[in-house]
């Protein structure tokens, strides 16, 4: 059963403010999502990011606070000199000093999001230099969540290293222009629970055969419900709720 609140983790670094503004401007009203933004900020300096992003959206935007319960249609920002994680839907903030400054805050948050939300975790990597976010995106994907990168070939992030690193690792479900990301996330969430597991076994068996021929991976060791969940997730990514349509797409692709 899906959680009542979809939480979208967003990682950005160099060039990411512009992408974040564009993404938030594209989020419709009554979206039902919560957004947690993790960026690389200079330590021990006041950040104006919450004020900047607050001008791009009618949703409340504020620095995250320790123990704060994540709410729908709010945007939470990692403050400077801190590490952010999530436990049971509550944000956990740990302040850091110069000696223990975390160099991969996006990975840290994405890993905790994957652990906390499981197959309902949603991770987005935007413009940035370096490789932060890649290991976190991997954790989200391995836990069955949705992973998205700002497409280097379609929306031209100012710094492509971070999204390209995630894509090169094979951990990204969708590469999208930044303005298309909210719509696809909302469509994905809308289909939570739309999958009917009580479908004819021959359709699932056909999907099993097609996936094995496409990927070379034998899913016969998976428990039936585990395999169904994997199929459901892929159906949500390609935006279909019918097993037969998904099988047809596999055959054509």
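-> sequence recovered:
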């Amino acid at each position: 059963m899906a959680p009542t609140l979809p939480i979208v983790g967003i990682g950005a670094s160099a060039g990411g403010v512009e992408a974040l503004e564009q993404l938030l401007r594209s989020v419709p009203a009554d979206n039902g999502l919560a957004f947690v933004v993790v960026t690389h900020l200079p330590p021990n300096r006041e950040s104006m990011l919450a004020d900047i992003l607050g001008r791009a959206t009618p949703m409340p935007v504020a620095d995250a606070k320790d123990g704060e319960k994540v709410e729908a249609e709010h945007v939470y920002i990692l403050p400077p000199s801190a590490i952010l994680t999530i436990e049971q839907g509550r944000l956990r903030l740990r302040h850091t000093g110069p000696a223990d400054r975390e160099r991969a805050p996006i990975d840290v948050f994405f890993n905790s999001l994957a652990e906390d939300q499981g197959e309902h975790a949603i991770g987005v990597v935007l413009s940035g230099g370096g490789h932060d976010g890649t290991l976190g995106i991997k954790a989200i994907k391995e836990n069955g969540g949705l992973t998205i990168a700002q497409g280097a070939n379609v929306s031209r992030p100012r710094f492509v290293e971070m999204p390209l690193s995630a894509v090169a690792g094979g951990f990204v479900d969708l590469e999208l222009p930044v303005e298309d990301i909210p719509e696809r996330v909302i469509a994905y969430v809308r289909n939570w629970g739309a999958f009917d597991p009580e479908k004819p076994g021959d359709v699932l068996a056909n999907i099993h055969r097609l996936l094995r021929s496409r990927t070379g991976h034998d899913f016969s060791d998976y428990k039936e419900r585990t395999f169904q969940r994997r199929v459901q997730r892929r159906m949500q990514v390609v935006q279909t709720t019918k097993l037969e349509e998904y099988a047809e797409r596999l055959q054509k692709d």
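Residues 201-215 form the longest helix (15 residues).
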